[in-house]
Write a structure and sequence with these properties.
This protein has about 60 residues and is α+β, with helices and mostly antiparallel strands. About 30% of the residues lie in helices and about 25% in strands. The chain has one helix and four strands. It has one helix at about 15-30, and strands at about 5-10, 40-45, 50, 55. A two-stranded parallel sheet has the order 1-2. Strand 3 and strand 4 form a beta hairpin. The N and C termini lie far apart (about 40 Å).
């Protein structure tokens, strides 16, 4: 069970579907592992729980 975990601010269902499709296609092509074998997990964090360069995303 190969898996991909993405930690990110909240996304729409459509955005997650596109990411899942494109990441899975890409990693399947590179590794030669059938795309149907991959699991993809989204760990979503609210913008007030993420900081970049010392600044909270919610303050940007």
């Amino acid at each position: 069970m190969p898996s991909i975990t993405i930690e990110i601010a909240p996304l729409t269902k459509e955005q997650k579907a596109q990411i899942a499709k494109e990441f899975t296609e890409s990693i399947s092509k590179v590794t030669g592992i059938d795309a149907k074998a991959f699991y993809l997990f989204f760990n979503e964090y609210p913008r007030e729980s993420i900081a970049v360069g010392g600044t909270m995303l919610s303050d940007r």
